[in-house]
Every structure is written in C-alpha cells, then in structure tokens.
Amino acid sequence: MKWVMVVPDGMADWALPELDGQTPLMKARTPAMDRLAREAILGKVLTVPEGMYPGSDVANMALLGYDPRQHYTGRGPIEAAAMGVELEPTDVAFRCSLISTDGERLLDYSGGNISTEEAHTLIQLLQEKLGTSKITFFPGVGYRHVMRWRGGPVEVACVPPHEIVGSYLRDYYPQGDGEQTLIQLMEDSYEILSAHPINRRREDEGKLPANMIWLWGQGRVPKLEPFSLKWGKTGAVIAAVDVIRGLGRLAGLETPTVPGATGYIDTNYAGKGEYALRMLEKHDFVYVHIEAPDEAGHHGDVEAKIWAIEQIDKHIVAQIAEGLFARKEPFRMLIVPDHFTPVAKRTHAEGFVPFLLYDSRQPHPSRFLYDESILEEPNLPTIEEGYRLIESLFSV
What we know:
The chain is an alpha/beta fold. 34% of the residues lie in helices and 19% in strands. It contains 14 helices and 14 strands.
C-alpha cells in the first residue's frame, strides 16, 4: 500500500466575474482530478488553527500531521533547516526576502522574480558588507533567503512582504525587540543593492531590481517527532521551496532535489511527478508540494493560475495515479490546497479548503466535482483540526 498527498499551494480561490462566477479550479481542465473525484471522499478541512496567520508554513505543518499550536515557532527556522543552516537553541532565524522597491513603496515581494544565480551574488555581497559575528546571511532559492541572528529576539512584529505590495515600507517596519537593528539592516541593504551591476542591468532590461531585503518570519528551531515514529511510515517530500523542504527535513523525511523545480509557474511539473513515483519505490508515503498556484495568486494572474492547475493535474496527479495503477500498487491519494490565495486579493485568505481522498481499493461513488463548490455542501465530511486530516489518509 502506498500513500500520496498532493498539495497545490494556494490553489483554493474565490469566484471571479471574469470567469463568469467560477474559480480558477472550476475553470481549469482537470480530467485526472475529475476521474478520481467520481470515486472519492470529498470534504473540507481547516488547515490553519483559528488565530494563526494562513501561511504555507503553518498549513503544511498541519497537513504533515503536526499541530502548529504546539510546534510552530516561525518560518525562518523551517527554511534554515532546508538550507542546512545550524541553529543553536538561542539563535533566531529570519526569512530574508529580496524585494523590489522605489525607496518608498514595496513594488514586488519576489524581487522581480530574481533568479537564484543573481540572488546568490547579492546575498553574498550583503554578508560581506553587513555580516558580523552575530548576523549571518545565507543564500537560498530565488528571492527566498535566511538571516541568522545569534541570540537574537523573537518578540518583534514583522509583516510578510507579500501582504503589503504597493504599501509604504516605513508603515510596516519591524516593531519590538531588536527593531532598530532589523530596520538598519534593511535600509543598509537598499543602499548596497540599488547600485549593484545586477540590478542596473535588470532595470536596463525593463525588469524590477532586487534592491532590498525584508526580514520577517523569525523564530527558534522547532522540534518535531520523526514522521516514521509518529505515523509508522517512511516517506519523502517533493518540493522546490525551502519552507516545505525544511518541514520535511525536520520531520526526518527524504527531500530529493528535482531538476528544474523552481518554486515558480515555470517549475518542472513532470519531474515532480516522476520523482514522486521514484520515491514510492523506496518509501511508503510521498508528499508533493507545488508552489505555482500560490505564485500566480500573489501576482493576480488568473490565466497563469488556471494553467498551473492544469499542469498539476496532467503531470502530477495523472502521472502518479497512472504509474501506480500500472504497477498494480494499491494506493490512497489525498489532494488538498494548503490555503486560499485568491487572485482578487493577491495574498492568503482564511477558511476551509476542499480535499479529495481517493482509495484505489475502495471506490466511493460521488456526484460532486472537486472544487470550491463542495465547501457549501452541508453533509460532506468536515475536519476542523487540519493536523488530523492525515489520519484519514492513513486509515485503512
């Protein structure tokens, strides 16, 4: 028996006038999900506990079966784990995002989709100029990086940059312990990066510069019970972004690197499906995370979100299901977005998300399609504790 969880990040959305009242998931052509839905249990789950921010870190921790209220400490230390950054118990890791700004407003939370190669050069420069015995910058993927502060503070309010696109930076600077140091680092980074040849070239090419860092998501290293002990199964996490890979590593799951997996719309969808099948040859469980729908939602790009959902259906859901059918391997597959990222809002939103649970051995005839409309159905299963959804996947 094999167990699969497919997590299209931020796939859940609101009905849009330009789609005649449909959501991107409703509009997308998803024959594989439609096929599974006809024989699956459909329902809704609250992935993020009430009162917590509906971020991918919290939601995916819950989907892996860990209660965020007990284990979540911040996004920074999770991403640090993915990057192999060592943290002492008193160290604090911050997510260090490269952003685009005109010096006053935040223009783009992803630094104009800065490439990993370009970003590494910029982060290494910041380490040379701003790094100290206590402050260290570590390059990650794309615009996503980490800053470690030895003995740093956690009681400081920091705002995620994707929440404040178009806003004045100063209105959302860190507030609390260590705020002056954090603000100084951010402002100094603007002075250093704005004049860098990489950013001058990007502007000449009509691209936004990655000309400032934004520090947020701070926390100390969390402790998670090994997944194999908690659930009695070995597994792997297929993901491009460090926050998900970090959760996998903290849980003791294998985290292979998929060539061409970018964490953007242009990711290697087929490669993720292929690697998932490969991991299922050696493990009981695979967790496949795809960032693309979330990125499209943040950019307000309806067509990109629809396209991403269709690629997930074709190259991941269909490829994994067909591969396991061909092997005559019984399996259970759970498909669930971690949260809403509405195109109209361009950031995360709270609320229940729809899930699909398919068992190749025990078909459950259903008259519903898998989309947000099932959230309005009163008689379908409802799971209010997101970290318990995985119990439904593993129950036999």
